[in-house]
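Hello forum,

I keep getting stuck at the same step: I have a sequence, I want structure tokens, and every attempt I make locally crashes halfway through. Rather than fight my setup again tonight, could one of you with a working pipeline run this one for me? It's a single chain of 430 residues.
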Amino acid sequence: MPADLAVIGLGHLGLPLARAATAAGIATVGYDPDPHTVAELAAGRLPSEGGDASLTAADVRRMLAAGFRPTTDDAELGRVRTAVICAPTRPGEDGALDMTPVGDAARTLAARLRPHTTVLVESAVYPGTTEEYLRPLLEAGSGLRAGRDFHLAYSPSRIDPGHPGNRSHGYATIPKVLGGLTSACTEAAAAFYGRLCEKVVRARGPREAEAVRVLEANYRHVNIALANEMAVFCHDIGVDIWDVVRCAETKPFGFQAFRPGPGVGGHGRPVDPNYLPECLGYRGRSLGYPLRMVELAQEVNGRMPRYVTQRCATLLNEHGKSARGARVLLLGVTYKADTGDQEGAPAREIASRLMELGAQLSYHDPYVPQWRVLERPVPRADCLYEAAAEADLTVLLQHHRTYDLQGLAVKAQLLLDTRGATPAGTAHRL
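Reply #2:
Ran it on my machine without issues. Output:
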């Protein structure tokens, strides 16, 4: 059967979109160049262990039953009216986003692009990417002209992977921002997303829509950095940061609560637009000034895994034990509660640092059956309470709802809570 929609990239962006479209009755094909990803989805399984909490294997099976077709055949892309690029853009070693998967997706689509198709981009990109990078690739590969022969627009993804089934933050209820190359492109994008979302917000153009994503990602990291700085400050002066946040968030204006933690993970990485890739016509810091708030936020948040490791060593020393040889149990190694997504999770760096101090590590996470750090497998605790009782130190890095923290606080010899989830006085808290 022909499909109305092609979702290109079946990862944390593409799968929730495909699910929403399928649920809305839109015939949807999902394209991904990775045969393993497609095979797993076709078998009704998530392509990676754990996955993200916005999607389950049962959701995948329901999508398949409703007609969703995952494929590696790019010929399918030439039979749809709408194509959405959801390829991943992860930071490289230099901190800049790797645009290669998005470029590859555009080239693949261009070879099959037909006139009158609406092309949408949801991948995390820099302002200017849709016009300066993707548009030339699409036009050169198809012989068509964007804005005349096909519609082109950008819409930042706003998926909240940590709240499965949360109706107030579901795909349909989150306003959808979009910006088209022309007014006709904007309206074509709005017509498509209007079938999936209750509210569509039109930006002035694709650059503004791309900048919305940058602002939202940087806003999160800057505010978490402030909370992390306050956590360190409050610990040094003997103040309970969690009680401070609890009281502060009662203010009905001028304050939004962000909570500290062992670091910041997730797919919504902070972006400093000064690091613009050469494919957009920039070289290095061509803007001539840094975004200091973003730089400082990255610096503060980047220090938190080291700070947590120091707190672990200090707690062990205060109880007459050395970090070398100490049995340390890590609870929750994902970046967000109640999800198996490990993207950017601080647990890995904390584990690496503890290993370097000579600690004997084990871990427990209901969403992560296997875990490797420094190319070595970390033993998984089968019986949580027994493991906590045997460990010299138990560290809560992520508060999954399945954890009985009161029970753990009783069983654990020493418990460090980096999430403020335990009642005051039952554990050492960040």
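The mean pLDDT is 90. If your local run keeps crashing, start a new thread with the error log.
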